[in-house]
Write a structure and sequence with these properties.
Distance between the termini: 36 Å
Number of strands: 3
Radius of gyration: 18 Å
Number of helices: 9
Strand content: 5-15%
Strand order of the largest sheet: 1-3-2
Structural class: mainly alpha
Helix content: 40-55%
Number of domains: 1
Largest sheet: 3 strands, antiparallel
Length: 230
């Protein structure tokens, strides 16, 4: 099986480094602990970047649609529903908190980092995944797709990190196993209806909150505050 090497900066890299410095966290220890989350993240990235049955520019959610969505249009409708559900939850839980809404969207796209916003997106992402897992539990095609994806990444090297002048760079490998490339759709945000554009932005970006180091940062922060992660 061919592999694709990905080399880029860790999401929220500057902020993560700052948190660790302020809390005097031993970075090598945290990096080693974060590897427990490598396989789920590599599987997510494999679906998003390579093994996507519906889209050229996937999100990572698409593996849950195998067996229920037969076309890219059907999968897109499911994705937009997921994104809109998250936005509706935000509007309901934080009614009239418009400044926080702004911080949430800026955190989503990496323009700034707000700790409360980070927790919010992490919780919304986890809830969406939990619902999808329950829905696909008895769908043989979806389960088979998931199991095959995990098999492809299970023996991949750990994510390698490099601390470079206050930023964290990463290198990892995903399975190069593009499926149905001739029939996949490329979604252009500007080509969507205006009410769907924010929903697409959410599903395109929310996967970064499942990154191993983002998850470790949240756990460490909760531990420092004497709380327990969900």
């Amino acid at each position: 099986m061919n592999t694709l090497r990905i080399s880029n900066q860790v999401p929220f890299s500057h902020s993560i480094c700052t948190w660790f410095d302020l809390n005097q966290v031993d970075l090598p220890v945290v990096l080693q602990s974060s590897h427990q989350y490598d396989v789920p993240y590599l599987a997510w990235q494999t679906v998003r970047k390579e093994r996507n049955p519906y889209f050229v520019n996937g999100t990572g959610f698409e593996g849950y649609f195998v067996g229920t969505c037969t076309t890219s249009d059907e999968a897109l409708a499911r994705l937009l529903t997921i994104g809109q559900d998250m936005l509706t939850s935000i509007a309901t839980l934080h009614r009239y908190q418009y400044r926080f809404h702004s911080r949430l969207m800026k955190t989503l796209v990496g323009e700034q980092l707000d700790l409360k916003a980070l927790y919010e997106w992490n919780a919304l992402f986890g809830a969406a995944l939990a619902r999808l897992r329950c829905q696909t539990l008895r769908d043989r095609q979806a389960v088979a797709f998931r199991d095959e994806t995990y098999r492809l990444v299970d023996h991949k090297p750990e994510i390698h990190y490099r601390n470079h002048i206050g930023t964290l760079e990463q290198e990892y490998y995903v399975a190069h196993a593009t499926a149905g490339s001739d029939h996949r759709l490329r979604v252009v945000n500007g080509g969507l209806k205006s009410q769907d554009q924010d929903a697409w932005l959410v599903v395109q970006s929310v996967g970064r909150f499942g990154h191993p180091l983002v998850r470790m940062s949240l756990h460490r922060t909760l531990q420092n505050r004497g709380l327990r992660a969900a």
